[in-house]
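We include the entry.

. . .
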Amino acid sequence: MPKDENTFSPVLSIPSSTNYWLIRADGGKYYNDFVQHGFIALAHNLVTIEKINALIKGNNSSNIDFRAVYLQSYPKDPRQVSGLRGNQIKNFTQVMSKGDVVLVPSKNSDFFALGVITSDAFDESLEVIQKRKNKYDPTANHSPVCTYLKRRTVLWIKEISKSDLPKGLLWALSAHEALFHITSSDDIYPIDKLFSPLFKKDNVLHLVIGTRQPDDLTMYQWNLLTSLSKETDLNPQDIKLDIQKNSPVTITFLVESYDSVKQIFDVLRPIMDPVIATSGVFETVRIVWRLLAGKRGKELGLVEWCQEVYTRHLNNTELKDKIHSTREKGSLSPEQKELKKIGMHPKSSGTLIEHETDSKKTDLDKLSNKKP
């Protein structure tokens, strides 16, 4: 483990300025290539970053007409298509930035890679692409090599299933846009929760608790849950609850201080189930548990937090089967037993991504902001 393992646990702090994107990999064709080699890319190779930068420099302004730029390279395309694709190129090259969140759907959108952009836009070398194409062997289950030139490096952190995708994004999948800017807070908030069961945004701490409750909570269960605030010295008006009613039910506690989070956790811990920790949830849940158990926390931005979690994951050669979150002291009260039936536990979706074709050293090198 890293030397600082015993000194702090990273707390995810998501900047309010973060943008969120869904980008396709040609119907999932290049999904594995994106994930294994740490990048995203956009088609229409005749419009290069080099050409765009030259126009910006010549005009002494970044306010250029991207539809016109696209039409100069693809004059036979309809104006409606040129406008859509010109706007996609503008978003990819000018609006996207380091630290933005990106989702990429696999073939049939069964899975999604979740990551953070770590570079400015650049043109990949044709020589590099050709060398990789020469090594491509379809009989060895290699991923098809992406031939798109316009790229950004990405630190992938998780692969999530379609069932964990915010429901509001399902319509975006049916629209088949190559690049989609996610702007609705109803979609952004569930994406934030995919990173960690505990995160901070807009000076508010979010503790995400999953349940095995298949349906809405009953009034009795709701009353029991809200009555837990009496077991702390917190003002109930300082605790907000966000209930996600899809199956299973997810409960998010919103508070303003780490002390408040710890008090809530101490009350919930006796009624929580042990967390089954696969390679997907182990690191994020373990970090949250360490923090709530009293370890000193250190706020990190999205990129830094992902680097920290991923580095620890690479160095963790043996994953434990379970994290025992429950430390019951004495018998549970009837109310606690009733709440325990809900099956509460920290909510952490997805599987941490490991690059199967790269060495550990190469993986760690990719954590830098340099191009691969």
Observations:
- The chain has 13 helices and 17 strands.
- The chain has two domains: 18-194, 196-351.
